[in-house]
Amino acid sequence: MAQAKLIDGKAFAADLRGKIAEEVAELKAKHGVTPGLAVVLVGEDPASQVYVRNKGEQTEAAGMYSETHRLPAETTQDELLAVVAKLNADPKIHGVLVQFPVPPHISQMDVVAALSPDKDVDGLTVTNAGRLASGLPALTPCTPLGCMMLLKDTLGDLSGKNAVVIGRSNLMGKPMAQMLLAADCTVTIAHSRSKDLPGIVRQADIVVAAVGRAEMVKADWVKPGATVIDVGITRYPARDPAAAAAGKTRLVGDVAFDEVSEVAGAITPVPGGVGPMTIACLLANTLTAAKRLSGIA
After folding, report:
1. 208 in helix, strand or coil?
2. Residue-wise DSSP of 104-167
3. Which among 168, 214, 165 has a CA at the least distance from the CA of 185?
4. Whether residue 248 sits in one domain with residue 210
C-alpha cells in the first residue's frame, strides 16, 4: 500500500494565521474593534514560559492586542482570582487564558470557574462545555478545534464516518468527541479501561489518539486507509547516542508513526502536525470572542 498522505499542520496553521490577520484588519477598519488576548502565568515553569512567549508573539503578529501577566509562584489563589476578575471586566480584553499548570496551592477548578465563559478562549468552563454538548455557539478547546480543521481539510464531509477518540480528558478527548458528533460521525470514546482497544480502533475511519503514551497505536490497530490524528507528545532521548549523551531529545507521538504511515490513508506527524494548530486556534477563538462581545456576526 502507498505511504500515507502527510497532514501538514504547520502549513495549515500558517495559512490560518494569515486569514485571521486579514479578518482582524477588517474588524479594526470597519468596526474599530481590536481583539485583545490576556495570558496569565503564575510561577516559573520553563515550558509554560515558552508557550506564553509564543502566544504573545503570535497574537501581536496577527494584529491583536496582547497582555501578559506574570505572577510569582507564591501568588495566592485570591490574588490570582482578582486578576482574572479584572480581566473579565476589561472591555479591551476579549480572551482570557490562565496558563496551566498553576502552583499546587491554587485550585485549577476554581480558576476555570472564575473565567467569564464569553472570554474563555481555552473552552474550559462548564458553560462552554455545556454549550458545545448542546449544539449551541461555544468557545471550544483549541487542540480539538485544530484537529477538526485538519480532518475537514483532509476528508471534506465527515458525515457517517466511524471515529474513535482514544482519551477522555476534559481538554481534548471529550470535546473532540462532541465536535465529531456534531459533524455527524459515529463516535466511540476509548480509554485505558476499554476492552480490546486495538479491536475498537481497527473499526475506525478516523482515529484521534490523545492519551500521552508514546507510540501506543501500532500498525495492526489501524484500518487500511484510515485517517490518523496524533495529539500525543512525549520527549525521548535522541536516537543518536552521542546526541542523547549531550542531552538532545526528540518528540514522539501516541502513534508509531513509521509503521502506521504504511497502513493509514493520511496521518499527522509529530512534531509538525497538531501542535502548530493550537496557538492558531487560540487566535481564532479570540477573534470569535471579540466579534460576539462586540455584537458583530
Report:
1. strand
2. TTS-HHHHHHHS-GGGBTT--SHHHHHHHHTTS-----HHHHHHHHHHHHHHS--TT-EEEEE-
3. 165
4. yes
Model pTM greater than 0.90? yes
Burial letters for 149-171: b for 16+ Cβ neighbours within 10 Å, e otherwise? bbbeebeeebeebbbbbbbbbeb
Residue 94, C-beta contacts closer than 8 angstroms, at least 6 positions apart: 35, 36, 37, 119, 286, 289, 290, 293
Give the whole-angstrom CA distance, residue 132 versus residue 134.
5
Q: Domain range holding 231?
A: 142-275
pLDDT tens figures, 103-118:
999 999 999 999 999 9
d(CA 204, CA 222): 8
CA 103 from centre of chain: 22
Going by pLDDT thresholds of 50, 70 and 90, the confidence category of residue 52 is: very high
User: Nine-digit cell at 47?
Assistant: 515550558
Domain co-membership, 236 together with 202: yes
Which residue's C-alpha cell is 490513508? 265
Judge whether 228 and 150 are in contact, CB under 8 Å: no
Which pLDDT band holds residue 100 (cuts at 50, 70, 90)?
very high
Task: Tell me if residue 49 is catalytic.
Answer: no
Are 109 and 154 contained in the same domain? no
Instruction: Please name which of 182, 122, 171 lies closest in space to residue 148, comparing C-alpha atoms.
Output: 182
> Are 198 and 259 part of one and the same domain?
yes
Cα gap 77→221, rounded to integer Å: 45
Q: How many CB atoms lie within 10 A of CB 182?
A: 15
The one-character DSSP state at 221 is G
Chain length of the chain: 297
Find the catalytic residue in 120, 122, 205, 254: 122
pLDDT at 250 over 90: no
Find, among 3, 41, 4, 7, the residue nearest to 153 by Cα: 7
55 is catalytic: yes
CATH number at residue 94: 3.40.50.10860
